Amino acid sequence: MTTAQSCNQANDGRSLQLPHSAHFFLNERCNANCVFCGDNYFNSRSGRMMTLEKLRIIAKNIHLEHYRQVILARAGDPLLCRDFVPILKYLHTTYPSVGITITTNGIALNREVSEAILECGVTMLNISLNAATKETYHRLMQVDTFDKICRQVRDFSALRRERGKGIAFTAFNPYHAL
Ligand code: SF4
Asked: What does residue 81 show for φ and ψ, rounded to 5 degrees?
């Protein structure tokens, strides 16, 4: 459930061969059913899910303190992981110098998750919205959550302003980008 990319050169040209990013797949389930999905996470019954305990062991074994960022994305939606908030808190307190990037469809971006994202030093939050209208959204993602996500994105944005947090935040919409 983890991949790493090498960052082979320091600013002074020395060869480091240190990992750059650790990519954790947090679960194999999704609450959307996108027509373009690379798998069938919407109907997945595998039950496979990252736990805080597993992540702690992996992070220790790969010396996560040397990485520049952790990516929580793919293989279903990361926000559906039962330990998502405890994992964020653990990463923030144990590896404060490692950036955190999250990519999600945003359906489960409720108040508790939004608070945790803002309080745990997440550096980038990407929300895959995929459409600018309810009709296109439903056709592509096959769930009826467009209004809910728009509301949650607005709420998150307001909370971010209220807390004065500098997190980079995008609602990605490739099909209406032109
Ligand atoms: S949100 Fe991502 S993981 Fe979920 S169904 Fe769509 S493409 Fe697949």
From this structure: -65, 130
Q: Please state, in angstroms and rounded to a whole number, the distance separating the CA atoms of residues 76 and 98.
A: 23
Fill in the amino acid letter for 73. Answer: A
Mutate to test the pocket of ligand 1, among 35, 39, 79, 105 (most ligand atoms within 8 A of CB): 105
The domain 19-172 is placed in CATH, from the list 3.30.559.10, 1.20.1410.10, 2.30.30.30, 3.20.20.70, at 3.20.20.70
pLDDT score for 177: 40
What pTM was computed for the model?
0.84
CA max distance for the chain = 52
Q: In this structure, what DSSP letter does residue 27 have? A: B
Q: Is the CB of 34 under 6 A from ligand 1?
A: yes
**How far does residue 149's CA lie from ligand 1's centre (Å)?**
14
